[in-house]
Predict the 3D structure of the following.
Amino acid sequence: MSAVPVITVDGPSGAGKGTVAKLLAEQLKFKILDSGALYRLTGLLVNRAGNGFDNEIEAAELASSMQVEFTVDGVILNGEDVSLAIRTESAGNDASKVAAMPAVRAALLDWQKAFAKMPGLIADGRDMGTTVFPQAPLKIFLTASAEERAQRRHKQLNEKGISSSIAALAAEIAERDERDRTRATSPLVPADDAIVIDSTSLSIDEVVQQILTLWSDRS
């Protein structure tokens, strides 16, 4: 894995990690890891199991046994297309809950590391630079104000015809941030050598260009 070029893109929900990671992968012809999707899938399975989020062992077993296929069109979980089901606000909150479970994180760690293959990898998540790929030559921590992230999410939902409240979205984002920052295992913090980019007043293209320049300097 050490010979595989890896760029990690960590940060809170709504900072633009997913879009930035996809554009970087397209520009560099690298593979991409959406680690958040793995936690959203696990959260979906725990939710469907109906036993709540108090049984960490069961959640870890669900994480380790799920059959996942990432396609150009979406995500297949145990033979079912769940692309839309894992992109709801509730799915994001469920993902944050299972991500706080050490046993679930351990169950998914080797799986995430296995994504590092040539010609390179863009790893999008919350602990890619601190836990999964600590030796990555370039680590980005992408952030934005909670208000800006709520506005972005509100716009996304409106475009899908889903009504939402900016105030409610901001409250959910703040709650998720706090849970992610204070969890005992792999909390949401920048790696010591990460470059922090605040995207509040930047366009996606500006963020991508900054990262490409940083990568060019390192490689």
User: Anything to note?
Assistant: The chain has nine helices and eight strands. The two ends are 17 Å apart (CA to CA).
